[in-house]
Amino acid sequence: MWNEVDNKLVRTFEFKDFIEAFGFMTRVAIAAEKMDHHPNWSNVYNKVTIELTTHDAGNIVTDNDRNLAQIIDNLA
Question: Helices 63-75 and 18-35 sit at what angle, rounded to 10 degrees?
Answer without folding.
Answer: 140
